[in-house]
Amino acid sequence: MSNPKDYIEKIEGAERRFFLAPVTVELRADDEDKPAVIEGYAGLFNKRTDMGWYEEEILPGFFDDVLDDDVRCLFNHNPNYILARSVKGKGTLTLTIDKKGLKYRYETPDRSYAKDLADAIDKGDVSQSSFAFRASETVWIERGEGEKDLRQLKKAERLYDVSPVTYAAYNDTTVAKRSFDSREEEETETQGAVFDDFNARYLINENSN
Q: Where are the domains positioned within the chain?
């Protein structure tokens, strides 16, 4: 059986990242009828990830402008399994930033899949997270021979979801390759523009002599 397509594949510029960051469940010992509270880190700062063609890290401040976005919390980033939602910082999903990264928190809703997920988290069967985003500002750092270039995520333009996930791994590296190719194209265009400007100045100087 093939894995379902990630909905962000239809959103231009959208990307997803996975992290081996613990997801925890807080059970109410004083009242068993109260829903379990789930929290975890969707993204971690200054943690380098091997993207295949390059390495990548999230810089502190990356999420500062997107906490008021319309953000869903989904299980396995599947929109059919919505766990919570935050709109303009309010709702059933709480998003906060600390020195470690982007933290999400929600109370388990009265839905069978959400209760099953809480049990899986409590047993340690689900312990990782992901988030979907579109970046507005990135920095590329060229490194020495034998080392992969480094892409730094500096500012997010949009945050789509945070998700507890079964596997903290990429289904494919298409987005990573697209990011790398886009960077190569931008460098080629910049070099071409500089070359054309140089040629124009050269012709002007030649004609003026």
A: 7-171, 172-209
